[in-house]
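During the first year of the project, the team set up a workflow for recording each protein of interest as an amino acid sequence followed immediately by a discrete structure-token representation. This format lets reviewers and collaborators read both layers of information side by side without switching files. As required by the reporting guidelines, we include two representative entries from the current panel. The first entry is reproduced here exactly as it appears in our internal archive.
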Amino acid sequence: MSVHLGNTLHPQEKSASTTRNHPFQKFRQRGILFKHLRSNALRAVLLLILVLTPVTGVAPSEEPIRISGSTTIQPIAAALASVYESRTNEKVVVTGGGSGRGIQDVLEGKSHLGMVSRSLKDEEKNKLQHVTIGYDALVIIVNTANPLETISRDTLVNLYTGKIQSWKEISAWDQPVVLVSKEFGRGTLELFMQYTGLRHPQEREKYPAGPFISEAAFEVGSNLESITLVGGIPNAIGYVSMGTAFALQAQGMPIKVLTLEGVVPSKETVQNGTYPVIRELNLVFTDPSQVQPLIDLFLSPEGQRALINEGFIPAVR
């Protein structure tokens, strides 16, 4: 059975991520992306992001169950979809696109389940049912070449508004700051904005007083894209999922996870609530009868182990 991983970009194909602020458009325009990415391994990861080929196999003819949304939850959903297909002979299609896309797809009837890596807003709760499958944290990452070990909220704000443009202003390292941010509509971006009080540049009409994330920031979609850029650009900084950061760090990605407001990000500090930026990992739906067996799998011991294997905190203990 086939589990199709969406959010992939093929050379002649447009996807949800192909927008005005394509993840690497600014780099292409300036011709500096591969100059910044220092190792062949990082370049290979980048190419995988752009040209991932879906896994294919023999699939039944009936309409598949569709899951879409947060790329933070996507690897867990893909792993459990394979398990579900093998047991039920029902096809499951898993795609990314961000938390906002997951919510919109469910509301429009395009997906049966939406993946949302943040708490739901009141208006969303009025329209959708949801279940929390686990917890994650937002962490701040820099390249291992950066001497910085800890950061405060105020410094983070000054960096992302462009007030601080050189690392020399907060350390002994005389290098320009390269900001990596997220596309509008991403759950990770919304959590970052809630914590810092910053707004995305696209919200200037709605929030004319700002303050705004610098338009000099490079915008990407998934956590993998953010981590690849920070791992390949020595003077870059980004914000990503804790689970994904630790998982890729363990595989050799040259990133450093910073202490935030004096608290080290860890499973323990997330569980005891001392880490400053914690988020829910949710599934949203309108008709539980269509997806209850899948939801049960996410909350089962097997499903919670899959979540733990990706570096997240289980909802069921």
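The second entry, processed by the same pipeline in the following quarter, appears below.
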Amino acid sequence: MISRKLIRTDLNLLVALQILLEERNVTRAAERLSVSQPALSKTLQKLRESFDDELFTRTAHGLVPTPRAEALAQQLPNLLENVEQVLGSDRFSPDTFVGTFKLLLPPIISEGLLPGLMAELQQVAPQVQVIAGEVTPDYQERLKKGEADFATFVASETERDILAEPIEALPPRCYMGVGHALAGRDFNLKEFLSYPHLRLYLPGLARENTSLVDDVLGQYGVHRTIALETTQFSAAVGVLTHTNSLLVANAGFENSGLYRDLIVGCELPQELQRMIRNTYSDHRGKMSLMRHTRTSRSAAHQWMRALLMKHLASRTLEEGGSDAA
């Protein structure tokens, strides 16, 4: 419980006391505090009244602290340092920073982002902890409440206090098991459509918000057979290794090397690539990194934002309601 005495206390008095203890000279202390000597003398009188002690005695050699002041000199530095941390300091060093960042990510994004991100954090910021959870439809509310620091999702409609930064995505590729009949060779659109397909989607998007590939194909009057829709990329990889299904996804996850011996990626059929280039699609929402405006002035959050964007830019996977697949 905060006492009445603390409520009435001006924290600037403690700063002045610390400077007086360091300088032991009113003139030099006044210069450091950018105040006049008379003003500092008044501040010293307030300090004496607050602590009911003289605190200093004047001598020919300057100010000599009383036993009470010397006791305060042992406590003040840590106290003022804690206050400065609460108020926020411009100083930030990743290698000494201790803190936790909470991320909300689609499983599709986690596959490509976390391996590289955590490897770099271990090198440059070993005391940083990351808590990664699956993004939910109420991610904007969770950002506002401080339950999460960052979220990645398709930015369609964002509230005023939510900042959305588009992530540059890699072009889509067609993935299949290593022993698939199409592996390692060019194939046409007819062959592409003759196989069953898996479709990744983001939880929380409307069902009618189909992927770009299906939207483009539909405008040409053709459709692919969707055997499985899932949010779980690792589950989709498992299905690819046990069936002759195909999966269209961005190439970002390949850098992690987690599935190098299980699946292979091929270019989309040239005809489909031309269709995508030449066809307008309503489903071009950009996968974005979201954060709340409350973190804008935090040096630690700005550093993590830059680090996330660095890794997301080369590893983004987008499916339903996004620029690819």
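For the second entry, the following points were noted during internal review. DSSP finds twelve helices and twelve strands in the chain. The chain has a mean pLDDT of 85. Both points are flagged for discussion at the upcoming steering committee meeting.
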